[in-house]
Amino acid sequence: MANRQEEKEARRAERVAKEQAEKRSAARKRRVQMLIGGLLALALLAGIGIAVASGLGGGGDDGEGDGPKQADKNTSVKLPGPTTTNMEEAAELAGCKLENPKFEGAGHEERQFTPADYKTNPPTSGAHFGGDWYEDGIYSPGDVPELGKLVHTLEHGRINVQYKPGSPAKTVAELEAFVAENGGYHMLLYENTTSQTAAVAATAWTHSLSCPTMKPEAFDALRTFRDKYLDKGPERVP
User: pTM of the entire structure?
Assistant: First the structure.
């Protein structure tokens, strides 16, 4: 009788031990599954983050950086108010030079252009890159390396304002405020890439304004130049 009871207890203990072992094994499996699930979730989130960052970092027709900054009408920079609407008078008062360079053509070529390809500095017409152009806006130094795309914007009636490399931050901020006066409509501002001698220049298709020094009177010269030649290129592009 005692032996039978001992056998029964032994079988019961064996069964309990087996059940506990199965429970521990199941718990371990659940923990492993949760760990793997967590790692997969983190990997998915990381992939989404990279994709978003890549999408935000594209920017612009030129495929560089984040594209141009847009003009801000709420800038705190104050410019001198207008005193004349006569372009020739404004240029003379500012000591700036107005020119109407000879038309150099408008061919589209898929190649890199250099200042040597043009007879004027900065260029105002001529063959240029045909497949693309820079969009309107304010560019940081180094963000407009392709000259052919800049000339293309002039063909579309844009006004390009460019300052000499090494210009004071105050001058650049004032030029940004100038571009913001019309909301940046069909205007580009950037650091010159053609070794111009002028402190500031504005170009339109077959027209240019060059100011050897930047002074308050130059803003009237820039305003009148903009108002006369904006959207006057041979190709109208919104």
Answer: 0.73
